[in-house]
Write a structure and sequence with these properties.
Layout: E1 24-27, E2 32-35, E3 38-42, E4 47-51, E5 59-64, E6 70-74, E7 79-84, E8 89-94, E9 102-107, E10 113-117, E11 122-127, E12 132-137, E13 145-150, E14 156-160, E15 165-170, E16 175-180, E17 188-193, E18 199-203, E19 208-213, E20 218-223, E21 232-236, E22 242-246, E23 251-255, E24 261-266, E25 273-278, E26 283-288, E27 293-298, E28 303-308, E29 316-321, E30 326-331, E31 336-341, E32 350-351, E33 354-358, E34 361-363
Antiparallel strand pairs: 1-12, 2-8, 3-4, 4-31, 5-6, 6-7, 7-8, 9-10, 10-11, 11-12, 13-14, 14-15, 15-16, 17-18, 18-19, 19-20, 20-34, 21-22, 22-23, 23-24, 24-33, 25-26, 26-27, 27-28, 28-32, 29-30, 30-31
Length: about 375
């Protein structure tokens, strides 16, 4: 059996306990309230930055809820934070497991936040309405979840970095299932879902694009190239094309699941890409930590725009898009949230050249 425990604000930090059978912990910990005010505007109010109170919180993984609340991890302070763009209110919720090393978050259709707690081998749910954490210890030793995704049907999926496992968690029964990725030492990363409910991800060390059919419980894999590309992504546009980034050759890649064909678009020289997201207008956004900039790539017109961040050495880390057309990103070095108002973007872009490639189908 599981339970939820509400702890009044200001209560001391508690740690999860290992219970007989299915292990979990649930607690509501100290809630810290603040109001963020815009600190910097740039480019005709295209980019706005919001300063986060506190010392060296190091904001990282970020995601938007269906009601346009912005959730992100403050890595060094081991907290989940919620930012309301309308009233500029920030709330912080300490994660129950100390030193959780939470590496990724996902928001489900009900607005609940799911966390991949890498160092403690836990996935956690934060009930946004009750403001209660519930943690589930993964029964498979050493999974070390690095990517997490809340699917439309309510299942929660996670990838382990070093064990070639895809994990499914069913919240209604609190049961885990594991599936072994065919390619050994794949370093699978970046989960997403297509309209049919299939999971997609890249294998950074395996050098492959992969999908998993949850109904047939079957993987398919496609080789990316002869040389290792350290691929990252993965996003799916409104037409069903799967997009990812070839880091080594510096190309944006579009994969057609129906034909198996791949189209590649050369990007401007860059380095340090940390993450990517696609918005409702099929624009793919890349956050580049080393270059201190954001790129926008239009998946329909194949044009790109570049936005240099107003604060130098801010080290943007993670990126998401809300339903109002705003793009949000964390700035780890200077403890800020950044926001691009896409309604104020001027069309100053260039079209990229395309290379068409047909990849070999490697069905497993």
């Amino acid at each position: 059996m599981s339970a939820e425990v509400a702890v009044p604000a200001g209560s001391p930090r508690s740690h999860y306990r290992v219970l007989p059978g299915r292990a979990f912990a649930a607690s509501l910990l100290a809630v810290i309230l603040a109001v963020l005010s815009p600190s910097v505007s740039w480019g005709g109010d295209t980019i706005t930055e919001f300063s986060i109170k506190g010392e060296n919180t190091y904001p990282t993984a970020i995601n938007a809820s269906p009601d346009n609340l912005i959730w992100f991890i403050q890595f060094n302070s081991n907290t989940l934070a919620r930012f309301n763009p309308e009233n500029k209110e920030l709330k912080e919720f300490p994660i129950p497991s100390s030193s959780s090393h939470t590496i990724d978050i996902s928001v489900d259709r009900q607005g609940n936040v799911w966390l991949a707690e890498q160092d403690v081998n836990v996935i956690a749910k934060f009930d946004a309405r009750k403001q209660v954490f519930k943690e589930y210890i993964i029964p498979f030793k050493g999974l070390q979840p690095i990517s997490i995704y809340a699917s439309r049907n309510g299942d929660v999926w996670a990838l382990g970095w070093s064990n070639d496992l895809l994990l499914r968690f069913r919240p209604d029964t609190e049961q885990f299932e594991q599936y072994t990725i065919p390619t050994k030492d794949s370093s699978a990363y970046n989960l997403t879902e297509d309209k049919q409910g299939n999971l997609w991800f890249v294998e950074r060390a395996g050098n492959k694009l992969a999908t998993f059919d949850p109904v047939k419980k079957r993987f398919r894999e496609w080789s990316i190239s002869e040389g290792i590309q350290s691929a990252m992504g993965t996003v799916i546009d409104s037409s069903g094309y799967v997009w990812y980034l070839q880091m080594v050759d510096n190309r944006m890649v579009r994969f057609d699941p129906k034909s198996g064909k791949t189209s590649m678009y050369d990007l401007p020289k860059n380095k340090g890409t940390q993450g990517m997201v696609i918005d409702q207008k099929d624009r793919i956004w890349l956050v580049q930590s080393t270059e201190n900039r954001i790129h926008s790539f239009d998946a329909k017109t194949f044009k790109i725009q570049t936005y240099d961040l107003p604060t130098g050495e801010s080290k943007p880390n993670s990126i998401c898009a809300d339903k109002k057309g705003r793009v949000w990103f964390t700035e780890a070095a200077n403890m800020k949230l950044g926001m691009i108002d896409t309604s104020k973007i001027q069309e100053e872009s260039k079209k990229l050249k395309v290379k068409i490639k047909t990849t070999e189908k490697l069905f497993r």
